[in-house]
Amino acid sequence: MSQWSQVQQLEIKFLEQVDQFYDDNFPMEIRHLLAQWIESQDWEAASNNEAMATILLQNLLIQVDEQLERVSQEKNLLLIHNLKRIRKLLEGKYHGNPMHIAVIISNCLREERRILAAASMPVQGPLEKSLQSSVVSERQRNVEHKVSAIKNSAQMTDQDVKYLEDLQEEFDFRYKTIQSLEQSDKNSALIKQEMLALQAMLNTLDYKRKEVLSKIGRVIHEIDMLMSNLLTEELLDWKRRQQIACIGGPLHGGLDQLQNCFTLLAESLFQVRRQLEKMDELLTRLTYDGDPIPVQRPQLLEKVNFLLYNLFRNSFVVERQPCMPTHPQRPMVLKTLIQFTVKLRLLIKLPELNYQIRVKATIDNNRRFVLCGTHVKAMNMDESANGSLSVEFRHLQPKEMKSSAGSKGNEGPHMVTEELHSISFETQVCLYGLTINLETSSLPVVMISNVSQLPNAWASIIWYNLSTNDPQNLSFFNSPPAATLSQLLEVLSWQFSSYVGRGLNSEQLNMLAEKLMGQQVSYNDYQLSWAKFCKEHLPGKSFTFWVWLEAILDLIKKHILPLWIDGYIMGFVSKEKERILLKDKTPGTFLLRFSESNLGGITFTWVDQLENGDVTFHSVEPYNKGRLSALPFADILRDYKVIMADNVPENPLKYLYPDIPKDKAFGKHYSCQPNEVSKPSDGGGKGYVPSVFIPVSKILNDSTDPHSPSDLLPMSPSVYAVLREHLSPTVIETAVCCKFFHV
Description:
By secondary structure, the protein is α+β, with helices and mostly antiparallel strands. Helix 6 runs antiparallel to helix 7 and helix 11 (about 190-245) runs antiparallel to helix 12.
């Protein structure tokens, strides 16, 4: 079943998450129509290879053309129209930057896998629950309702101001008419009656002025209360969700809704400002003793300007945190002299500001680093699919100043990766007589000079964003706080779901908890130190917990990803636990687990039964990335042979735990059938028989005895004779000479 087919079967709450990341950058119609083709392409590799990305973009457009031809025959007018529009959009948007669409599609596929993994988990973690609580949803609806009510009130006040203006014009006309009469005419009874009517009209004007100012005051008060409470909470909540999403958590949404709220409030405040300007005009044409306008208007205008300043300052946000395109799953880790991207948005979307705001990017002022590349750009509404007022810096790169290079030799690896920096942005908005200076900053970033520092740098990013919602605590690692173990385990599961497409279940997380704490623990409220996570070596090992886990992630990503996504790798299980699981199983039942003693290693253990009925267990030496580069792991499982004393070599692996036939589990991942590889006609050039690696082990009668030096010598003649009887000479030679032959 394709990944897209699995997505379509999700519950509505997960489908809503999927809906959030499909837009005009990569329309869902294309994802749906080209599902299998899209999933069969290597978009992640293309995101770092312009030539490959160009070919994929061309092939994508060809696929769209083929779909257009098909729907044209079906005379589906709506789909024809949409596909033509989408094709034009894709070609125009990515023709000059094909790697950008590769990044987008790669991210979408990865996010789908994360959501599928989250849906398969029996229980949500504490962090994810807090981000999706009903209280948050209710507050979002409350904010939108109040903003809509404020907008309506401001528009109604517009009508009151217009009525007041009309009333005053009538008063002016009638008053000037009387003033133009001769003095003798002013004493007539009719004129006296008109004067009484004018007095009544002036009383009404005074009442309406007070009423309009009162309504304006109420609108201002409602905006003030909304900004001070609900809107501020909503913005902080979005920033927290962004933090969590950056370390692998659920995709954060809601920025478009916030933009709508900010824009409507700004429009309402500018509308109120115009109303106050109109009141000033009315004042210049007519005033009187007790006139409320000269008393109340200055205070109201000052409050409106103050709210506009605050609204604009809060609306300037980092929409997408700094990230190297070469490492999309590791944002906020920046390598010197390597380009990174970062995107900013002004949540107040007014047409008057398009291309009028120039943003300048700088790095924190410790003078150790500078930013090279285009660091001043104008915000516009043309580059974003949703028309937001934004700017994306794509060619920035940090450079270390030469004056500080001499200090690098004194820095340990942890000191480098625990040093936090900040990318700052500043601009100025000039609008309707207001000049507002805006500043914002990225979340703290870690600078590295070598990719070998990336794992520890990423650990720092995880710990910071898990432990605090303070966006600018650059001295955080002077005294890093402990983290709740239950939340840390949830984040570790996110590393697997976001990076390798499948999260960890409760049993796997329990094993990680035991490894961190050294014993079985109830980890709901347990506090874990930063040193325990990333700096102290595991007991009896030469590496830390995080280095061990990161090596496993790298192994999965590069060598065993399909098997991991299928859920056939138990992975995180101790030697003691694996024996408990296997002891009552059919002989030949095996499971796959990650090595606890070797970095980036995977092994398999199977259960066997001796002639006397005793159960025995065998574990093969772990396979690391070097060996898996030469032979796919699925082929190893298929072809693995064991020689028990002088017996016939055979594959002991029959059933994947608990009882899945091996070929049923891994058959689709085999590179070829074993009986095909030794035929001279199948690829053998110049008369040679094609060779194949065969992993072979020899197991002593007592498998618990240590190997002696004699065990490392070539096999005995009797064993070799048995092999020759069942395997071709070429296969034997390859197996004996290659490093996969274990004795």
